[in-house]
Every structure is written in C-alpha cells, then in structure tokens.
Write a structure and sequence with these properties.
Blueprint: H1 2-8, E1 15-18, H2 27-34, E2 39-42, H3 57-70, E3 75-78, H4 92-109, E4 113-116, H5 126-143, E5 150-154, H6 167-176, E6 183-188, H7 189-194, H8 202-215, E7 221-226, E8 228-229, E9 240-241, H9 250-257, E10 267-269, H10 278-290, H11 293-303
Parallel strand pairs: 1-2, 1-10, 2-3, 3-4, 4-5, 5-6, 6-7, 7-10
Antiparallel strand pairs: 8-9
Helix pairs in contact: 2-3, 4-5
C-alpha cells in the first residue's frame, strides 16, 4: 500500500463521526468541531419512531450558522431504521412517505445526502425485494424531483431477509434507479465483513475492494462508515466495535485509510461512545495516525 499512501497525502482528509443532535440539530456541529471532525453524520429525527415534526425556520437558521462556523462538509443524515422499501405490506407506503420526509428535511437543512438501509424482503425473495426497493426509490425521486439531496444505499450485515448485504445488490440499485444523479452507496466496514467479505490481509483487501469498484463506480461511493466488528467474518450479525478492537483489526483500517482510490470519500465512525466523546477522540486519532505526518499537520492548521 506504499504507493496508495503517497497519493493519499495530497488529498484533504474527510474524517468524522456520527454526532448526537440532543439539544438541537445545530449542537451536532458544535460537538463535531470540538473533537476535530470536518465531516459528520446525524439523525434529523428520532430514528426509532415514525412521527417527526417538521424542521422549523429557526432550526434551519441555527444549523446553517453553526455549520459555517464549524467548517464541516459534507454533513449527511442517516434515515430512520423503521423504513422498509423491500416488500409490500403494512409499512411499504408508510416507508415511502417517511423517505420523502427524510429527503425533504435534509434538503431544507442543506445536507448533501441521506444514508438508507434498503430494508427486508420479508420472505418474498431477493429478486422481488430488489425490484420493490427500486420502485419505491423511483417514487421518492419523482416526488422530490426539484430537490438535490441524494440517497446513499448502505450495505447491510446480511441478517435475516435484509437486502443490501451483497455487492451485487448495491450494483442493482445504482443501475436501476430512475435518477442516476441522485443515487449512490455508503459502505460500512463492519457490515461488509459480517456479510462475508474479508479484507484483513493485503490480498483479501484488494480482492474485496476491487470487486466493489468493478460493481460500483467510485464516484457513486458517497461515504464510508468506519466500524470494527465484534462478530467474526460472515457472522451476519451487525455489532460495531472500536477501531482495532474487533475481528477486523488494525491493518484493515490502515490499508483503507491509505488507499488513494477512496481518499476523497468522507469517512465517519459509528462506534460506541459516551457523552464526552472520549471514545471518538481515541478512534479518530488512531485513524489519523495511519495517514502519517501530513494529515497530523493539516489537522493542527485547521483546529489549532
């Protein structure tokens, strides 16, 4: 990875974490800035409930003001966990409406994209589930046709009937959605590993990420979630762990952080943490250390 490391250092590092919006959406930006993030992910609403109030003009103003002060970009949202676009049923129409609401909220806040778990086929089969998801996404794009906010489909760990655990699923979404300018993917390292893709050695790393790029154009990869895995390879279980403390280990992240092909892609943590963000600081510092002195110098200039 020496050549990749050399190339990487010419590109500004976009590194951050998922930030809480407790106390107001704008607080997420203040929290991110306090630990040196220059990109963050947020929830714009309670991710475990259907009901969500509209974002007020005051909230939008406070958020945009805080974002200018924090110099954080991109800022993106993770959609509600309740949304399931993969199968007809009780929640299908409700999920489409919720997805439209997510896009609208993100657009009003000026967010670049939202990250979405595609959902479960609920036993109707992968092929039907993929088709249903694309149909739903196309309806969302049609309803929000005047908006710019994109959707990044996140790969999943492979539990149960969930869609998105195979790279060919992500390829299908990208190729079949009606608005190619507004569809992309988000790669979660824990999910990738748990679903059976190994990348702990140099050989397995290159095999996995070359397959990814063979299926998904690099410009369609809008974000990367940096999470180690508490569970072993191909476990199909989604359990995030601190960087280097799980079954993926340090070297997988060292290779990823020094891979020039992904240098421009924003990378955020979704690892466990407390209110003081101490765990995020440890994980971010470790990730930055993989990139060498050039990244450390860049950070000292930006954050003093």
């Amino acid at each position: 990875m020496k050549a990749a490391e050399k190339n990487y250092r010419t590109v500004p590092l976009k590194l951050g974490a998922h930030m809480s919006v407790a106390g107001g959406l704008y607080r997420s930006l203040e929290r991110g800035r306090s630990i040196g993030c220059n990109t963050i992910q947020i929830f714009t609403r309670n991710a475990s409930r259907w009901a969500a109030k509209d974002v007020s003009a005051e909230e939008i103003s406070l958020f945009q003001k805080a974002r200018r002060a924090a110099h954080i970009s991109p800022v993106f949202a993770h959609c509600s966990y309740l949304i399931n676009l993969g199968c007809e049923g009780e929640f299908y129409e409700r999920s489409i409406d919720a997805m439209i609401a997510e896009i609208t909220r993100a657009e009003n806040l000026g967010l670049e994209f939202v990250v979405l778990h595609p959902g479960s086929h609920m036993g109707c089969g992968e092929e039907q589930g993929l088709k249903m998801t694309v149909q739903a996404l196309n309806r969302v794009f049609e309803t929000t046709s005047q908006m710019k906010c994109k959707i990044a489909i996140e790969n999943t760990a492979g539990q149960g009937n969930c869609l998105g655990s195979k790279l060919e699923h992500l390829e299908y979404f990208v190729q079949h959605c009606s608005n190619p300018d507004r569809i992309g993917v988000c790669i979660d390292t824990c999910h990738l590993f748990a679903s059976g893709y190994d990348f702990r050695s140099e050989k397995s790393y290159e095999r996995t990420f070359q397959e990814l790029l063979n299926r998904i154009p690099r410009q369609k990869i809008l974000a990367i979630h940096l999470n180690d895995s508490k569970m072993p390879l191909n476990s199909k279980v989604d359990r995030h762990e601190h960087i280097g403390k799980g079954h993926l280990g340090v070297e997988a992240f060292r290779m990823l952080m020094n891979d020039a092909r992904f240098a421009k892609i924003p990378k955020v943590l979704e690892t466990p943490k407390g209110k003081d963000l101490a765990e995020d600081i440890v994980n971010l510092n470790l990730l930055r250390s993989f990139c060498g002195s050039a990244v450390k110098a860049e950070r000292s200039v930006q954050y003093g």
